[in-house]
TrEMBL record:
This is Uncharacterized protein. The chain crosses the membrane at residues 12-39, 148-168, 206-226. It comes from Haemophilus paraphrohaemolyticus. It comes from the Bacteria. The keyword Membrane applies. Keywords: Membrane, Transmembrane, Transmembrane helix.
Amino acid sequence: MAKRKKSSSDSSGVMLIAFILIIFITPIILFIVLVYSLCKFFKNTKHLRPLKGTYDDFWLDSRTIDTWKFYDEIWRVNYHKLRNIEETVKELDISVNKDGSISTRSKAGKKLKADFDKATLEKNNAWDQLYELIYLPQERWKSVNKSLQYSIASFWGLVIYGLGYVYLQLTYQVRIEWATLGANLDSLKELFNAVSQIEWLKFDGWYLFLLSIGVAIITALIAFIYSTPLNRITPYPPEVETNNVDLYEGKY
């Protein structure tokens, strides 16, 4: 029986701690997310301001464009080398292994295999460099958009939490009669007077618990609905390709 009582007591203690954490952790997390997201937003856009509202905002700068062209040329040269080697293998009727590799049983086969492996390595290395640059403008845009998205959602989450907290205090602590208030100066004075009577550190835990849960859900919905707020400021850039690499130029 003693063990059963202890277990019940432990469970109650855990639930109480969880209850208290949910009450206080929602506004704290929202505040931390807001500050962190804003700092990240301004850090990632410090070289971009003022934003033009064009693809240039997150595009490669002149130095990076030259780097892209350098690796693009290496990729193309080795791509054509590989095609030529494959054609030569067919013309010379050199056998191919089951795994598709060139047979090295002949002298010509050994040379072509070595050339093929070298070209493949250079082509793959160039592609690794190109891959990052091809999607770099989009990755930059996504990073800034995410910071802006979380900033907006957490800001409105804090506003809703603050308004909800004041409403609960006025309703259940001060017990203001909302039905008697109207759109006039006297009602406004009465409302301010009621706010001044609030004991801010005195609250009903259950109402605050429900408020915290509600605000967390609303904040998540805001983040979901406004998932691409940066689109209102500057467009999502395309992938970097040969036909567009020189059309735009970024600042970093």
